[in-house]
Design goal:
The complex is a heterodimer.
Chain A: H1 3-9, H2 13-49, E1 52-53, E2 61-62, H3 66-73, H4 75-106, H5 113-126, H6 130-139, H7 145-152, H8 167-177, H9 180-192, H10 195-203, H11 208-236, H12 240-245, H13 259-269, H14 273-301
Antiparallel strand pairs in A: 1-2
Chain B: H1 4-7, H2 11-53, H3 58-61, H4 75-81, H5 88-119, H6 125-136, H7 141-153, H8 161-168, H9 173-184, H10 188-196, H11 201-212, H12 214-230, H13 233-238, H14 247-257, H15 263-295
Helix pairs in contact in B: 4-15, 5-8, 5-9, 5-12, 6-9, 10-11, 12-15, 14-15
The chains are: A mainly alpha, B mainly alpha.
């Protein structure tokens, strides 16, 4: 251990330990206030509110399990769950596959790597902005960039965003477009793999595909896992894009009614705060469950060196 | 790995395989670049098209998928700038206030918490650290309702306080984690020498750790800038008075309120709203990429 710890063992070290405790408390004070005051406190409060009827104007009135049983018959909630799940299950794998593919292409010193990396990374910085959502809304409109481009190939386009069947796909495309940040993490992971492994493998006559399957992929599984957990949690919370593209409605025909958007409508559109709190906790349970399953399943496919 | 006896007596085949591989390798590099350039163009095309379209007359925007510019229409920018009750700069200044507040808050509170986690021993440290990691993944939707109730009780709705004060309380725990990782890389001998010279923790933090962790602070400032500048959800909830609107809120209001949206102007203001992000990205991408690679940001 370091000599600071040894110092503490000197006469009067008892004081040193207590001092550290005090210093740590002071350094962590803002964080503690935030943790209890605006994170854990509100979380518990929203758990309580989920059992009440509350519209902000009158004090909350206990309503038992009403909010929770109401969920069972709430068609729009079911719709929003469907939308969100399809979005998460389709867009996250696509996004990560593309991120991994391009990271592999960029690995091993391609000339112009910094340029490519920046170009690919940029969309993930602006993908969640209103400006890009505005762009998407026009690009995929009945007369928009996408249909113009399809027209060049003689394909008759359609109003991608005004059609309930395709509106969600345009947002999937938007999420896939932001593959840059997982890609940068993959690139960092690839750089950790010792080149000696590949050298040894090619001496043994392993093909590139074989090297990918037996070296790259197993050693990259912790990074894939990390990206998967992060991007799933992230995708569950998608809001801005759906809000702007649908004008806040989640339309057409609720086809872009993301969970967070529905929660916003209940809570801040109708000031149905009790129900919105219950919805918030359901989201927490779902995200928590997914993360837990992810961690549990990781035992079977994630390879840890040590 | 595979049994060597099978592969050993085939020198000729190996030679040919080598030749084929060499040709393949020579082809691979240009092929790779073609693929990468195609990808890069596809990725950037929508943004480039938006920039070009922001300089086109409305009638042309929806008919031209190209990047050629025949009728330059700079009026989109002046029209868009003045299309709101206040000039667009008003909303950008609001955004800048929120962003600066958030940056200062994050730098202050997260660096302090990070120092404690990285350098001090205290009771139940592991539990607190784990709690901090969990809060990184906590969806904002779970706490927004009671938080809104709290801030409206304090009469903070339609002020910038709900967007800034939480940052002074280290609610963006991601940055604590980023800084902890960074401080762990600073040699402990430095603090120890200062400790022996009689410096307290405050002195060590301000005089030794903070100056050495400038790269981590820069990463934090840049990410905070971009995320706060683009943030829509909490600004939408806490700022309902058009006078207090930030850039994304103003942009959204412009697109939604008109039945016949003037898309040229909407694009122009979209471009304007993205310019600060581009500039910050260009200036600070070194820190961004390093930060995201070591901790895995959003």
């Amino acid at each position: 251990m370091s000599s600071i710890n040894e110092l503490r063992r000197l006469p009067g070290s008892q004081r040193g330990a207590r001092q550290q405790n005090k210093a740590a408390f002071l350094f962590l004070l803002p964080w503690f206030v935030g943790l209890f005051g605006i994170t854990i406190g509100p979380m518990l409060a929203s758990l309580y509110l989920s059992f009440t009827d509350y519209n902000l104007l009158q004090p909350p009135r206990l309503s038992g399990l009403d909010n929770w049983t109401r969920m069972l018959h709430d068609e729009r909630l079911h719709k929003s769950l469907g939308v969100t799940f399809s979005y998460v299950f389709v867009s996250v794998p696509l996004q990560l596959a593309l991120a991994l593919g391009l990271a592999l292409l960029l690995d091993k010193g391609v000339r112009g790597l910094p340029f490519y990396r920046s170009v690919f990374y940029l969309p993930s910085l602006i993908g969640g902005s209103v400006a890009i959502a505005v762009l998407w809304r026009t690009m995929f409109g009945t007369t928009g960039l996408v249909n113009e481009a399809l027209g060049l190939f003689g394909i008759q386009g359609q109003g991608w965003i005004s059609e309930p069947g395709t509106a969600l796909s345009t947002l999937v495309v938007l999420n896939v477009w932001t593959f840059g940040s997982p890609m940068v993490i993959f690139l960092a992971g690839l750089r950790q793999i010792p080149t000696s492994l590949y050298e040894a493998a090619s001496v043994d006559g392993a093909t590139r595909l074989r090297q990918f399957r037996s070296i790259t992929l197993p050693l990259l599984t912790p990074i894939i896992f990390f990206n998967l957990v992060l991007q799933i949690i992230h995708a569950f919370q998608t809001f801005t894009q759906a809000f702007v593209v649908s004008g806040g409605t989640g339309g057409p025909a609720d086809s872009t009614l993301f969970y967070s958007l529905y929660l916003y409508q209940r809570g801040f559109g109708h000031f149905d705060m009790g129900y919105a709190s219950a919805l918030a906790w359901l989201l927490l349970l779902i995200v928590g469950l997914f993360t837990a399953v992810n961690f549990w399943a990781s035992k079977y496919w994630v390879f840890y060196d040590d | 790995m595979t049994d060597r006896t099978a592969t050993a007596p085939r020198p000729l085949a190996v030679d040919r395989a080598h030749a084929v591989r060499r040709i393949k390798r020579r082809m691979r590099v240009p092929l790779k670049h073609v693929l990468l350039i195609a990808c890069a163009l596809t990725m950037l095309y929508p943004v480039l098209w938006m920039v070009v379209s922001s300089l086109r007359p409305n009638s042309e925007i929806f008919r031209n998928a190209g990047l050629d510019l025949t009728h330059l229409q700079v009026e989109n920018y002046t029209n868009g700038w003045n299309a709101y009750s206040e000039p667009f700069s008003h909303y950008m200044i609001n955004s800048v206030i929120v962003v600066i507040g958030a940056i200062i808050g994050n730098l202050f509170s997260c660096s302090m918490a990070a120092y404690a986690f990285a350098r001090l021993e205290f009771r139940a440290k592991r539990v607190w650290f784990a709690t901090m990691l969990v809060t990184i993944m906590l969806p904002i939707h779970v706490i927004i309702v009671p938080q809104y109730v709290l801030f409206s009780e304090l009469d903070w709705v339609n002020t910038f306080l709900p967007l800034i004060v939480p940052k002074f309380l280290a609610t963006d725990a991601f940055f604590i984690f980023l800084m902890v990782q960074f401080i762990r890389g600073i040699p402990r001998e430095l603090d120890e020498a200062a400790w022996i010279d009689g410096a307290g923790h405050a002195r060590i933090f301000f005089n030794i750790i903070l100056p050495l962790m400038v790269p981590a602070l820069a990463t934090t400032a840049i990410f905070t800038f971009i995320w706060t500048w683009n943030d829509f959800y909490s600004q939408l909830i806490y700022l309902t008075d058009p006078d207090m609107y930030t850039t994304p809120l103003a942009l959204r209001a412009f697109v939604d309120q008109q039945t016949e949206t003037d898309w040229g102007s909407a694009f122009a203001m979209s471009v304007v709203s993205l310019v600060p992000v581009f500039l910050v990205f260009l200036a600070g991408q070194r820190f961004l990429l390093r930060g995201i690679a070591t901790t895995g940001g959003k």
